[in-house]
Structure formats: C-alpha cells, structure tokens
Amino acid sequence: MNLRVASSKSWGALVLGLLSLVLRLDLYESSSVNGQVVSCSNTDLGGIGLGGLAVIVGLAAGWDAATGLIRYQAPARKGPTLVVMAFALALGTVGLLKGFSVIMDPCG
Fold first, then answer.
1. What angle do CA 64, 67, 70 make, to 5 degrees?
2. What's this model's pTM, rounded to 2 decimal places?
3. pLDDT at 72 exceeding the cut of 80
4. Are 28 and 42 in contact (CB under 8 A)?
C-alpha cells in the first residue's frame, strides 16, 4: 500500500491531529490554602480546537473516500486514504481528550 496516494484531506487531518498534541494554549487555574494546592483546573484550547478540526476533516476525507463523491479518485486511493484518516481520527480524539483534561492532565 502506497500512502503517498492518500487524499490531501486525510493528510491535512493527520497534520491537524499531530498539531493538537504538540501545540498548547492552556487556561490554567489553581488555588492554594496555606501553601497547599486545594483546587486545580486546566483546559487546553489548542487541543480542543485542533483536535476537533482533525476529527471533522478526517471524517470528511473518509466520507469522500467511502462514497466516491470525488470522481478523479481511483479505487486504489481508497485504502491509503482510509488508513491515514483512521490515524488522523485517533490523534484528533486524543487531542480532544487532552484538551478537556480527561487524559494527560497537568493537575493530576
């Protein structure tokens, strides 16, 4: 399988998914009493935004490949497009979970 023939939408979704794990725009709030941290909250807007975009673009790429809406796509492009799209959806989902502090929470 030659991944170079995958659609540009699926590659764009993969790049967005990777960026959602690397770029951070955090809203961090903590409060302490007598030097002890008693509450902490964190939201990563970069993970939410880029992860959400990766999921949306990845689903659009998968829809195009599965339904054959794009006429110039050869049938040999479906497999690689769906593989790259699956990785993009996984990375986008991890970016969303990280953004909502479900996983990789700096507050512990």
1. 50
2. 0.83
3. no
4. yes
Query: Which stretches of 1-108 are assigned E, i.e. beta strand?
Result: 26-33, 36-44
Q: Which amino acid, residue 38?
A: V
- For residue 68, is it left (φ>0), alpha (ψ between -120 and 50) or beta? left
Q: CA 106 → CA 30, 74, 97, distances in Å?
A: 11, 45, 13
**Structural domain span for residue 40:** 3-99
Total domains in the chain come to 1
> Does some domain include residue 104?
no
Tell whether 70 is covered by a domain: yes
What is the distance, to the nearest Å, from the Cα of residue 46 to the centroid of all Cα atoms in its chain?
A: 10
Q: What distance in Å separates the CA atoms of residue 66 and residue 89, rounded to the nearest whole number? A: 15
What does the pLDDT read at residue 70? 60
Rg for the chain, CA atoms, rounded:
18
